[in-house]
Write a structure and sequence with these properties.
This protein is an alpha/beta fold and about 150 residues long. The chain has a single domain, classed as D-tyrosyl-tRNA(Tyr) deacylase (D-tyrosyl-trna(Tyr) Deacylase, Chain: A, 3-Layer(bba) Sandwich). About 20% of the residues lie in helices and about 40% in strands. The chain has 2 helices and 8 strands; from the N terminus they run βββαβββαββ. Strands 1, 2, 3, 6, 7 and 8 form a 6-stranded mixed beta sheet that branches. It has a two-stranded antiparallel ribbon with strand order 4-5. Strand 1 and strand 2 form a beta hairpin. Helix 1 packs parallel to helix 2. Keywords: Cytoplasm, Hydrolase, RNA-binding, tRNA-binding. Homodimer. Pfam families: Tyr_Deacylase. It comes from Xylanibacter rarus.
Amino acid sequence: MKIVIQRVSRASVTIDGQVKSAIGKGYMILLGVAEGDTSEDVDWLVKKVASLRVFDDEQGVMNIPITAINGEILVISQFTLLASYKKGNRPSWIHAAKHEVSIPLYNEFCDKLSREIGRQVGTGEFGADMKVELMNDGPVTICMDTRHKE
């Protein structure tokens, strides 16, 4: 699994002209599920995201996790994170998991993350044409890949 976490002041996702989810201060996360990903990958990412200390303390140092600020999270499915670009200029999606694998793992990630932070995370709609808007705070952007846990 690959994720891109952006610390945001606000974020929202719109589908067919209707806002599906909107959050204030917190994280907007893009999540890509790869072939071979499992619930163990979900568990590892959930713990990392919930424990990540990128919000400022009293001295202005990134030292506070999202749970300490009662922050919100929006998770958007993003298979294009798994793009293969080694040959030519048109990306290939051969590393992205099929729907029957990726949808349950996406839902599991959202459910477990909601429980871990003690509040419901916002979501997009798997496979939909989504318009994502965000105000990056910092900017702070962090990429994580469960294939590179060190």
